[in-house]
Amino acid sequence: METKWSKVIIHASAFFAPFLVPIIFFLISSEEEVKTVSVQALLFQIVMGVLIVIAIILSFVLIGLPFLLVFIAMVYIVPIIGIVKAILEEPWRYPIVGRWV
User: Fold this and answer.
1) What is the rounded distance in angstroms from the CA atom of residue 69 to the CA atom of residue 77?
2) Chain centroid offset of residue 77 CA
3) In a domain, 97, yes or no
4) How many whole angstroms separate alpha carbon 11 and alpha carbon 44?
5) What is the pTM of this model?
6) Where do the TM regions start and end (predicted)?
7) Are 25 and 34 in contact (CB under 8 A)?
8) If DSSP codes are grouped into helix, strand and coil, which group holds residue 18?
9) Number of domains in the chain
10) Which phi and psi (to 5°) does residue 13 adopt?
């Protein structure tokens, strides 16, 4: 039960503390599943931040605007999917970074 709600909090942290909460859960948790989810969440936020910055730079030549819209949508939609999967206790990996961990 603790693992389920820990994963929900880690996924939901994307909306209020996307870097701090995954790091804290990685440090305090003894469960390997929670540590894996926290690393995935942290990596996802870092990668999406880099992609959004690149898309903003490319938006000046208009090619980055569609990418910017997709990346911003992913920042909000992906954590919601993670929350639902954690509540249903189904395994789930973040897109882009899920296989890295």
Assistant:
1) 12
2) 10
3) no
4) 11
5) 0.83
6) 6-29, 41-61, 67-88
7) yes
8) coil
9) 1
10) -65, -15
Q: Locate tokens 């999406």: which residue?
A: 48
Question: Which domain covers residue 59, as residue numbers?
Answer: 1-88
Cα torsion 28, 34, 36, 42: sign: negative
Which long-range contacts does 61-65 make (Cβ < 8 Å, 24+ apart)? none
51-97 pLDDT, tens digit per residue, is 999 888 888 877 878 888 999 999 999 999 999 999 998 888 888 77
Three-state DSSP state, 98: coil
The tokens describing 7, both together, are: 């994963």
Sign of CA dihedral 48, 49, 52, 58: negative
Q: How far apart are CA 7 and CA 65, in angstroms?
A: 32
Q: Is residue 66 part of a domain?
A: yes
- Take residue 42 and report the two structure tokens written for it: 């942290």
Check the CA dihedral 79-97-30-91 and report its sign: positive
